[in-house]
Structure prediction request, 184 residues.
Amino acid sequence: MKVGVVSGHVYSTINFPFFDSKKLMICDYLNADGTTSGYTIAVDRVGAGVGEVVLIMDEGNSARQMFGLTTGPIRAVVVGIVDEADFGTPSPSP
Amino acid sequence: MQLARVKGTVVATIKSRGLEGVRFLIVQPLDKHQEPVGNEIVAADAVHMAGPGELVYFVSSREAAEAMPERFVPVDHAIVGIVDGVQVTS
Prediction:
């Protein structure tokens, strides 16, 4: 899993059926020094909002299990909202 | 998943089994501000409706094959949605 910051969301009407009524969040990956590098579009499972530090699970089989599927083009899922992360350096504020 | 802009199409008559009837599009991966990152790639169109100029999102690696009607096909990028809008704060 990775720690990221929600920086926005994507909405679409024409999509693979799995994504119907799923919230897609743009999440920037967070580095130990508080900077971000790269992003992913993840399905939200916890009701995360923009600006929040979140836990991103990026593995297909686990993602499918969470949604009770055996097949489906899903991989990245927001699985937690981070209250505090100690990187051994000054912690980024949520 | 990542954002991408559809640039064009690819037509191949001779292809691996399981890829019959699959549309292939050339897409340019984008960052969250919709600026191009890296080189163009070929992605299968799992929504059957994407066309040049459209903003889409795609899955990579094994999950791309999961978007295809047949499982375990040799596909490594698949378009799974056409974007209506993106809201980014920073």
Q: What stands out?
A: Chain A touches chain B at residues 7-16, 18-19, 24, 26, 28, 39-42, 50-51, 60, 71-76 (CB under 8 Å). The first strand of chain A starts at residue 2 and ends at 11. The radius of gyration of chain A is 14 Å. The first helix of chain A runs from residue 60 to 66.
